[in-house]
Design brief:
The complex is a heterotrimer of chains A (91), B (468) and C (483). Chain A has 91 residues and is mainly α. Helices cover 27% and strands 7% of the residues of chain A. Chain A has helices at residues 4-13, 21-35; strands spanning 52-54, 85-87. The radius of gyration of chain A is 23 Å and the shape is flat. Chain B has 3 domains: 3-281, no CATH class; 291-402, no CATH class; 410-465, Orthogonal Bundle (Arc Repressor Mutant, subunit A). Helices cover 40% and strands 18% of the residues of chain B. Chain B has helices at residues 52-64, 164-181, 217-233, 279-288, 293-304, 308-316, 318-327, 333-347, 351-356, 361-372, 378-391, 395-402, 410-423, 425-431, 436-448, 455-465; strands spanning 3-11, 72-73, 76-79, 89-92, 103-110, 113-124, 128-132, 140-144, 151-157, 192-199, 206-211, 241-246, 251-254, 267-268, 274-276. In chain B, a hairpin with a 2-residue loop joins β5 and β6. Chain C is 38% helix and 13% strand. Chain C has 15 helices and 11 strands. Chain C has helices spanning 7-15, 21-39, 47-62, 105-112, 155-162, 179-185, 219-229, 273-288, 301-319, 339-346, 352-365, 371-394, 417-422, 428-433, 462-473, and strands at 42-45, 74-78, 116-121, 168-173, 188-191, 211-216, 259-263, 292-296, 397-401, 437-444, 450-457. An 11-stranded mixed sheet of chain C has the order 1-3-2-4-6-5-10-11-9-7-8, sandwiched between helices. In chain C, α8 links the parallel β7 and β8 (292-296). The chains are: A mainly alpha (91), B alpha+beta (468), C alpha/beta (483). At the A-C interface, α1, α2 and β2 of A face α9, α10, α11, α12 and α13 of C. β2 (85-87) of chain A pairs antiparallel with β8 of chain B, so a sheet runs across the interface.
Chain lengths: 91, 468, 483
């Protein structure tokens, strides 16, 4: 089911250069085969286990400045001299 | 038939904090990366907490656009990698598994045409990329996350527009609407951004992105419509693709990235519980919402007898209608409307000029009263208004310092007319034959009196003197 | 002075002035230095700060100033829980030097009560694994036999508590990650109800099912820690608003008259004989204590591993997307790289298990597969929850072995991911349904390896769960760790 092309596509989706794609093909295929059993599950319920919160319990719209040990967050991040974060080239 | 649909991103600029954290919603003109916290830059371990007011403001937009608001809303993650996206996913809403976005199935009327709103969703704005370096090779990308997490409402229409002109009208109506609701200032740079999709008869659908200002949307769509039509006319297939608007060249360009092939792997956002929105909350909100532009216009016409066209202009712009509401009285409403729409709008036509106005509500009200009870002419009123805009001084001060009182004293007016008759001898003799020349003489009198003379009275005296 | 005392004993010794905080912390640090090379529980040890903090607390005690209720108790924190000024690596090469600018809510609550963070405990990279072998910093080892795995993913937490390298530890439990090492290392571990303990500052792996949970040597110590860390947190909207309970009070209430169900699907053929025997023995002890035991069937358990790994991988693939090395991470310049190439390169530093789960997650969420896998997995969850609800109409608690097999040798199963996944069969039910579960040690096998038993209660019934665990604990007398 899973072939090299598929694994490389998945690698591209999660942005990982796969050093040894062959190894992953076998394992991912085996695990997905195991997941197949889910397809047979029949259970009629629209219930979800997710918590529900009322509108009233949401965060109030209030500005609060973030600081840690008196320093702004950018001081904890990679940055250039102008406090920009550098990213690679975009093509 | 041409079909056009829109995706409009509108920032909720009237909020204090971001959508999922307590950083400032107003990121504009701040030093790079000074408005960030662990949540909006997606540091490990941070969790989003939803801004209550953002839900309220988005609900108001949904209500105003005639959308249904579900009993429960929920959030999803849209997964893709991009440097302006600190978590490499965007928290947004998604209706593929049932309507859980803040609004869906709305309708807006544009000149008698129905534009259907497919859905309205609440989502976070990404950060901002700055490109430096001239050539492709030396280019570097810098990221400023100040904007990341700013509350954004996405409005998606059905492809119901038939031409770019309808789009322009719709966008103007929408901009006025969000402004009137007090949820956004659509004229702030980047506050309202529009993507479009367009297809002509027998052609595929093309997405248009990257249109900088929403005023350029009409141009971009127009260009694209013409381009597609000419392809179809020549029997060439229109490719289904995404094209970007090239602002410098004013054309659309095929974008190399295959965005339509992206697989966003939508996933429920488990960090944000499902939010229950009780029906009575919506009803309450409806009651609290500001009067709609349409209702406002109707009230202006019915209650004050303001002409349809004036009421139309006055009600659409929140700035002006607010000014009207605060300055008019029962008796001078019509004149206040007149001053605002014919004179003030010409003087204060930009954002900067609007904020620089020194003019007070009292100023406008007094001015309108003076015109209504005849102590001042419209002409003098215009001069006084200009002075009020600059200084905010009271009407009486301006009237005495600029000598703007109405010249309704007939004898002094006659004296000035006599002077003009001497100065303009030639015109006066011509006027007996050619009535057009009379207007010239009236103009001279007006100038001499700095506009204080009542044009009707002046004309009457001149006619009498010429025994016409 | 003994290190192997309970938290309750520690507090009374410090309060009475019999020992000082500094003495105890210093001795703990000595112990860490003596055993770390054998068991490798820690990624980072913060001895100096710990001692300074101990001195400060002693000073407060001597001056009779107000102190926090934990009185300098040394704790270890799993290294996927953020601590300000102390790096949080998630046992990943990508976060080797990451220092969070904030404390997780659970950490700040511990600090407020004057607990001392003595170090950051080892784990499987981003908590993905059940042996702690998938750590960038090397595996932790079972203190009962260092050739064996300590369980995981909170292996460092289990080992540090078992080896007397701290009093209690905070781990995280996504599919059994607190209970597995508790069972393998012969200590107690609780997975609280989803929404009872704040996840703010816990680095997300599968955020819809995981919880921070304490590991300790005694059930009453777990109750003590829960009194400090449980409760609503405005920074985590998934925490519930309810009045805090006192888990310590009445912990010795007993279980007379309680109905306890033995889960059939967790005691089948796949379970080691010695473990089954120990489980049966524990069940009869529960009966001796006055509980009524009966078999209970949870049919959905047979789908649970598939459902769990579908959901966990899907969420992992999204949660781990943020590690692109742009804003934080290791030193690796962006010059000369195109964005996608750069990101794919830095992310090739993820270990094999994390990579595997991200690939699986991308697959099950892909357009066209979502309905077949992810939605079905969610259906299993609701099915399982309705079966659990049914069960708790008949019984007060459920019981089952924590792990189906005994601890095994390091390296033995590392290359067979599916086999490792199947070891979670008894623990993941609690995660998928959100209910609390506790693992407590009940026996040492003939080969000298620990066996644990697991009790489940209905959502937010931690108090009665701890009472039952405490009752059972009082019947068990186990040897000290041979380290």
């Amino acid at each position: 089911m899973v072939d090299r092309k598929e694994i490389e596509h998945l690698g591209d989706l999660v942005k990982v250069d796969l050093q040894d794609p062959e190894k992953y093909i076998l394992q991912v295929d085996q695990i997905l085969n195991y997941f197949e059993r889910l397809d047979k599950v029949e259970h009629d319920s629209d219930k979800t286990l997710r918590k529900e919160i009322s509108y009233d319990d949401l965060r109030e719209d209030k500005y609060e400045k973030f600081q840690s040990d008196g320093k702004p967050l950018i001081d904890y991040l990679k940055k250039d001299q102008n406090n920009f974060v550098r990213a690679p080239q975009m093509i | 038939m041409t079909k056009i649909g829109l995706e409009i991103h509108c920032q909720l600029t009237k909020l204090e904090s971001k959508l999922f954290c307590s950083c400032k919603a107003d990121y504009r003109s701040l030093p790079p990366n000074s408005n960030i916290c662990p949540i909006c830059v997606g540091l490990p371990g941070s969790l989003p907490t939803l801004n209550k007011k953002a839900v309220e403001k988005a609900s108001m937009i949904s209500i105003a656009l005639g959308c249904k608001i579900p009993e429960k809303i929920s959030f999803f993650r849209k997964n893709y990698f991009y440097p302006d996206l600190p978590k490499n996913f965007q928290i947004t809403q998604y209706n593929a598994y049932g309507p859980t976005s803040i609004g869906s199935d709305g309708i807006v009327q544009i000149e008698g045409k129905e534009i259907r709103i497919r859905r309205i969703q609440l989502e976070e704005d990404p950060g901002r990329l700055v490109y430096e370096g001239s050539s492709q090779k030396t280019q570097i990308t810098l990221v400023d996350y100040n904007r990341a997490g700013t509350p954004l409402v996405e409005i998606v229409t059905e492809p119901d527009f038939e031409n770019p002109r309808q789009v322009r009208i719709f966008l103007n109506v929408l901009a006025d609407l969000v402004e009137n609701l007090g949820v956004s200032d659509p004229y702030l740079e980047g506050a309202m951004r529009v993507d479009g999709n367009i297809s002509v008869e027998k052609g595929n659908r093309v997405e248009i992105k990257n249109v900088g200002s929403f005023r350029d949307v009409e141009k971009a769509l127009h260009f694209e419509m013409t381009r597609q039509q000419s392809l179809v006319d020549r029997g060439i297939e229109v490719a289904a693709e995404t094209r970007h608007w090239d602002d410098a060249r004013k054309i659309t360009v095929s974008s190399r990235s295959k965005e339509e092939e992206q697989d966003y792997r939508y996933l429920p956002e488990a960090d944000i519980p499902i939010v229950g929105i009780a029906q009575d909350r919506i009803e309450n909100l409806k009651k609290q919402m500001p009067e709609s532009i349409v209702a406002k216009k109707e009230r202006y016409v019915k209650k004050y007898g303001i002409p349809q066209q004036v009421a139309d202009v006055l009600s659409s712009g929140k700035f002006y209608s607010d000014l009207f509401e605060k300055s008019h009285t029962e008796s001078n409403a019509k004149e206040v409307a007149n001053i605002i729409t014919t004179d003030l709008m010409g003087f204060a036509d930009t954002r900067e000029k609007k904020t620089d106005l020194k003019l007070t509500h009292r100023n406008i009200s007094d001015l309108a009263d003076a015109i209504v009870n005849g102590t001042m002419t419209r002409n003098s009123g215009k001069i006084a208004l200009q002075e009020m805009i600059k200084t905010g001084r009271s009407l009486s001060e301006i009237m005495s310092s600029l000598d703007l009182g109405n010249m309704n004293d007939a004898s002094s007016l006659e004296k000035i007319i006599d002077e003009v008759f001497v100065e303009e001898e030639k015109a006066v003799s011509e006027a007996k034959q050619n009535p057009d020349t009379i207007n010239y003489i009236v103009g001279k009198v007006m100038r001499k009196t700095k506009g204080k003379a009542d044009p009707g009275t002046t004309l009457e005296i001149i006619r009498k003197k010429l025994s016409l | 002075m003994k290190l192997g005392i309970s938290a309750t004993e520690y507090l009374s010794l410090v309060r009475s002035g019999e020992i000082s905080v500094e003495e105890f912390v210093a001795k703990t640090i000595d112990r860490i230095q003596a055993v770390e090379n054998k068991v490798h529980a820690y990624i980072t040890i913060d001895s100096e700060n710990a001692l300074n903090k101990a001195k400060l607390i002693d000073k407060k005690i001597r001056a009779k100033e107000k102190t926090g209720m934990l009185l300098g108790m040394p704790v270890s924190i799993k290294d996927n829980i953020c601590t300000a000024r102390l790096r949080t690596t998630c046992a990943s090469g990508l976060l080797e030097n990451f220092v969070a600018p904030y404390d997780a809510t659970v950490v700040s609550r511990l600090k407020q009560q004057d607990s001392i963070i003595i170090g950051k405990a080892n784990l499987d990279e981003f908590a993905m694994g059940s042996t702690t072998e998938f750590s960038h910093f090397g595996p932790s080892k079972n203190p009962w036999n260092p050739e064996y795995v300590p369980g995981g993913s909170s292996g460092g937490s289990g080992v540090s508590v078992s080896s007397l390298e701290c009093m209690v530890s905070l781990g995280s439990d996504t599919g059994g990650s607190v209970r597995s090492p508790a069972s393998f290392c012969s200590v107690v571990g609780l997975k609280p109800t989803y929404g009872l303990v704040s996840r703010y500052g816990l680095v997300s792996y599968a955020n819809s099912i995981e919880q921070v949970g304490p590991i300790a040597r005694k059930v009453e110590d777990i109750a003590l820690v829960m009194n400090v860390i449980a409760g609503h947190d405005p920074h985590d909207d998934t925490t519930v608003k309810k009045t805090n309970e006192d888990y310590v009070a009445g912990i010795d209430t007993g279980i007379k008259g309680k109905k306890i169900g033995l889960v059939q699907q967790m005691t089948g053929d796949g379970v080691d004989k010695e473990i089954l025997a120990a489980t049966n023995k524990a069940v009869s002890k529960l009966q001796d204590l006055g509980a009524e035991c009966m078999p209970v069937s949870l049919g959905a358990v047979e789908h649970s591993v598939a459902a769990y790994y579908t959901i966990a991988s899907a969420e992992a693939s999204s949660n781990l997307a943020r590690y692109d090395n742009l804003r934080y991470g290791f030193d690796f310049g962006t010059e000369g790289y195109e964005f996608k190439a750069y990101v794919s390169k830095v992310r090739s530093n993820f270990g094999p298990e994390v990579t595997r789960r991200m690939l699986l997650g991308a697959f099950v969420l892909s357009a066209g597969y979502y309905g077949k896998y992810y939605l079905k997995a969610q259906k299993v969850r609701t099915m399982m929850k309705s079966q659990i609800d049914e069960a708790f109409k008949k019984v007060d608690l459920l019981v089952a072995p924590t792990m189906p097999i005994l601890p095994f040798k390091l390296g033995e199963k590392i290359d067979d991911p599916l086999k490792l996944y199947l070891l979670d069969i008894n623990t993941i039910t609690a995660n998928l349904t959100g209910i609390p579960a506790i693992s407590i040690p009940i026996e040492i096998s003939s080969a000298g390896l620990p066996i644990g038993i697991q009790l489940f209660a209905n959502s937010f019934q931690e108090k009665s769960l701890l009472q039952a665990a405490y009752s059972l604990q009082q019947t068990v007398n186990l040897p000290e760790v041979p380290l």
